[in-house]
Amino acid sequence: MQIKRFKARNVPEGLQKVKKELGPDAVILSTHQLKGSAGADTVEIVAAIEHDVPETRRCNVDEINDYNLLNQQLQEIKETLSLMFSTKRFLYQLGPNKDLCNLYTSLVVQGLREVFAWELIQSVAHNAKTEKHSIGLSEIKSHFTKTLKQKIRTVDPFTKNGNGNTMFYSFVGPTGAGKTTTLAKLAAHLKLDKNKKISLISLDTYRIGAIEQLKIYAQILDVPLRIASNIKETADAILELTDKGSDYILIDTIGKNFLVQEHVQDMKQIFDAFPQVKHLLILPANAKDSDLTAVVSTFKAMPIHSFVFTKIDETTTYGNIINQVFRFGKPVSYLGTGQRVPEDIEKADKDKLCHLLLKSVE
Ligand SMILES: Nc1nc2c(ncn2[C@@H]2O[C@H](COP(=O)(O)OP(=O)(O)OP(=O)(O)O)[C@@H](O)[C@H]2O)c(=O)[nH]1
Ligand SMILES: [Mg+2]
Questions:
Q1: 311 lines ligand 1 (CB under 6 A)
Q2: What is the DSSP string of 192-246?
Q3: DSSP letters along 69-123, please?
């Protein structure tokens, strides 16, 4: 048996380290919270594996990713099965309330995971019970909106911290998600509506035409653009643009198949050198829920600030937006609502998200 100690900032990070080094069969023997010298909490995990791990049997990052995804899917199947058993009685109780039943069905049709729909409906049913009179659809909807609003977060990433320092943002996400378009929309909004000094950096030296696309936006907006392909060039660009007195520096990144964990690791390697950058994960709302989940899972390797859901206009179901928010607990900062630059972008708003989800409930 091989026993090892691991130190990490938190338990999930520690477990990743355990899995990476000892593989998925590792057994956790203990976890302890430690106080670091700078006052920051760290955790120590002691883990063991039955047999010595031969070098060739160690998991690579892709295997870990597959394992994580499989684990998540298994967990969701387990939850759905247990939901099927436990909901029988509750659905029977809901039976007389046609509106609550319809709401539950509509949410599931909207692509909201059964477990999440179930949780929300239970809260609504509970609140409805406290009413003195029997309530109708509009009151059910307003209970639902109130419940959902308590469970999701929205954020404005551009709120200044008061010290007037330059702030940095990266736009990361899968191919064609709308990273460059969203960056251009927000650059225009910050420059034209907020009168801020904007600079752009492109790290996308991979896709043919990517630089030209951003160059055109930079020219139209009359803002500086620098191109960088490694840590040194990025540092030089950041230094130069910061010296020029930029309020916000927006960084466009390469769109790659981020189901491949190595691609996230490549990007992480660059951004680890710039911890001041806030990462906005751009996710197309019209993508399949399972694919979005897989992408967000791989991006767990980076400290994602918030989600931006694009292509809201190209879908009629919005459950997968809420699924990602519930699953990963991240706030939503913006919604992309069309192809027009700069018009088609909105600050994420809880009422709007509730409204989208309830659109089809009649
Ligand atoms: N309908 C709609 N289309 C959008 C939206 N955002 C971006 N697009 C379109 O999606 C396509 C891809 O947009 P890009 O901004 O180039 O996407 P990207 O993520 O930078 O792509 P890569 O850099 O190639 O990975 C373009 O045709 C955009 O006009 C949106 O909110 N709604
Ligand atoms: Mg792009």
A1: yes
A2: IIT---EEEEE---SSTTHHHHHHHHHHHHT--EEE--SHHHHHHHHHHHHHTT-
A3: HHHHHHHHHHHHHHHHHHHHHHHHHHTT-HHHHHHHHHHHHTT--HHHHHHHHHH
Dist. CA 188 → ligand 1 center (Å)? 16
Per-residue pLDDT of the chain (362 residues; tens, 9 = 90+): 788 888 888 888 888 888 888 888 888 888 888 776 556 678 888 888 876 655 545 566 666 667 777 877 787 777 777 666 656 666 666 666 788 888 888 898 899 988 898 889 888 888 777 665 667 888 888 999 999 999 999 999 999 777 778 999 999 999 999 999 999 999 999 999 999 999 999 998 877 788 899 999 999 999 999 999 999 999 999 999 999 999 999 999 998 888 888 888 989 999 999 999 999 999 999 999 989 999 999 999 999 999 999 999 999 999 999 999 999 999 999 999 999 999 999 999 999 999 999 987 76
The CATH T-level fold of domain 2-59 is Dodecin subunit-like (3.30.1660)
Our answer on whether the CB atom of 247 is closer than 6 Å to any ligand 1 atom is no
- What kind of architecture, by CATH, is found in domain 167-358? 3-Layer(aba) Sandwich (3.40)
Task: Report the atom number in ligand 1 closest to the C-alpha of 256.
Answer: 25
Ligand 1 atom closest to residue 337's alpha carbon, by position in its atom list: 31
State whether the beta carbon of 180 lies less than 6 angstroms from ligand 1: yes
Q: Which helix (H) or strand (E) holds 40?
A: none
Residue ranges per structural domain of the chain = 2-59, 63-151, 167-358
